[in-house]
Amino acid sequence: MPRFPFDLLPEDFLHKHHLVHRLYVGPILALTPPHPWAPMTDDEWGFVRRLLPPGPDQGLAGRPIRGDIWATTTRPGIDPARARLDAVFRAVMVKRDTRRGPGRATWGDAAEPDGPKPDTVRRTFRRLAEAGFFHRLLRAVADLARRGGRGRSDLARPGPLLLGLRYRACCAFRRIGVKRLGLSGLALARRLSLYSALPAHSPFLPDRDLSAIYKPVLWRAMIGLLATEGRLERAARKLVIRAMRSMHAICGGRARISRDMEPA
Fold it and tell me: Domain-by-domain residue ranges, the chain?
């Protein structure tokens, strides 16, 4: 094997930044366990309602809902905003039929026969996403999980039942998509350790924070290549360039993300 005339990686590079845990072990162990959809409880709705944007987008955007959805003898009446948000959560949590392949369901497949139309649910979801509702919900749920439901944040309230919103928040956040989330949205989910909120597994997506970690190492490698030009073996030079390309690929993620790449 060819040897480098300079150190490509600092001695404490892997241990200092916990790269093995950051790239592979952490994202797998921190996935939120999936659970089937169920209407929000009164405590969960009271928590979520304070995060809704004010004005006409407070869960009421789109076509009006006719009647009470999921009304039972124990729940004779439901707030229309609550019913619409329940429909949104159901749409983002339902998976596609296995006969058609894995992945999340489309808006049409996730719609209830007696519920709101798929376009109504889709427009409501889009308007809530543009208003930043799902970003606020993700931060609030992460604050609850981190502080054990006893947080000092005004968004956190005691109660273990509210932790059931974690999977709903992750499913809704990742449904926004890579393009609309951008690098800031992907970085937010990683910093909150909510890897189920990512549209795909963490190594497949761009990582802005990892780019900042790799940048000085790449500069060090390029300076070393220029300083040893003409004196470095061809095999060693190819090995260094290959390592730099791999680091760029990990930071940049995959070019195309499909819906079947979502975490469970």
Answer: 1-30+200-264, 31-199
